[in-house]
Amino acid sequence: MRDVRTKKSYLAPAMSLLAGIGLSICVPQQSSALPQFARRYNLKCYACHTIPPVLNEQGYMFKRLGFRLPPSLAQGEAGPTISYLVQNEKEWNVTNNVAFVVSDFGYQSQRSTQEGSDPTSQSGAQVLAMNSFFAGWVPDTNFFYLSEFDIVTNGSTTPNIAQAYIGYSGGNARSSWYVAGGRELRQTGEGTRAAQVFSLLPSSPLLFETASPTNFLVDQSPVGLGAGYTWAASSYRNILAISAKVTNGVNADGSEALGLSTRQSEDAWVDADWWYAPESGVTFVDYFGTKDQTQNAGLTNEFTYRANIRRQGVFANYMLRYKVDFLGGYLRSRDGWLDPNGGPAGLFTGNDLFGQVDYYPLRGFGISGRYDRLNQRVAGGPGPTSIYDWTGAVNKALTPAGNVVARIGFSYLAGRDPLYALKATTRLVEADVMFNF
Amino acid sequence: MTQRSIRFSAIGALLPAMLFIAPSCLVHAQERTGPRPSDPYLQNEHSARPAVDGLPGGLVQGARLYAAKCATCHTLSRSLRQSDLSSTEWEDIVYRMRNRASSRMTDEQAKAIVSYLAWNGQHGKK
I want to staple A418 with a disulfide (CB 3.0 to 4.6 A). Which of A217, A372, A376, B123 is the partner? Predict the structure, then answer.
């Protein structure tokens, strides 16, 4: 039987977990459509996005080739080398490398309940996001770079360099490779559509955005070194790609380790992707790392436990007649866990999944719905628990180029956390307009 | 239902509707300006589809395919104004585009688009 003190030791992480889950559905997705690329090639956003910021196959290849447009790949012909593409790039200028502001203005209304607490309601119009990007290529070289400066995030002014990396791409358009280093958002251009954090819905799938009891989540921007290889068939009928990355990982509180750390360990990520035309794909994700886990934080018996973290997932989408996109994913979690009450070492286990349908009746108009479910269990905890989330949204591009997108979305989340089995619900209504210029 | 949640629902329904309707009106206002006299085969500078009135019957399909396949990424005005290109040059361009990622174009569709573009080059601007 647990005493009061034991409850306290559970309560803090349980509260933070619930807060994290609630936050994950009211946080707008990151607006990462980069209009400078559209300007550079005089193209509409739809060249690389279904509806910004969701990448299509061409957008994926664009990133894999070091921010260069995928050239023609005719049957029986060799693909042009990356160096050849470099020679034919347009003249470098600042305008074509800067997205001065990518903004998201909106109205949110949220109501949350939690067992043992009074319900809370919040609403308001706000600047949800305001970001600035500097991305492109170093003139006359195969080097490419991207930096993202976030001015406003989730309605708060929090200046932050969210991404800053530089890379080098080589080979040719059929068989290319790249190496890159720096701080990079995971699951952007790594992974087919179902495996990417960008979504037409107000939030990304829960399995990307929800922190485990060990304070680990997939959607992070670690500092590290990565490399990738991409093979493309004629006319890009099939694309096979693999990426691997070694990063600093995350601190005990879940924040990214961006500098020197006492953790003395690195994390390894592997992605294997298969795109098959048109616009369908499968992705396997594997992550292995370690991180510190602070238990009984703030109490006299506080201690630190070094847990192994493992994530394995498979994600797939199938685009039917260019109109209906069926997406789904499964993520398996196995994290080391030491019970704060002195119990034996065990595991946090998660079997998380989502299913989503995006319907595109017209170019620039999308209707989406998604069901998320997290099935979780922690050693020494109350037993298996689950959290589910229903989300729906309508996206409408307001300009022919697709650079202004309006969206109305809703979400209903309910479930119990794996540590203390506290029941919580969150209901969110959001309307926002995203400007890319 | 509490007073607060009623207000929550009303605001939640009204504001999104306003956000959608207002910008849509602006877009429609722009579209009412119609085609420019110098571009008889453009319904609008940024329109998603070219006008098919007056086209020879065999080219209507090419015009529609052009709108569906090319105007996804390119503005109509930009490519239709390249009227000095020959049929062979258009063929070269369209077949190169066909081999790009996400072109979603068959051989037959590419041929129809080339026919339309070549005809447009000769007759589209008078």
Answer: A376
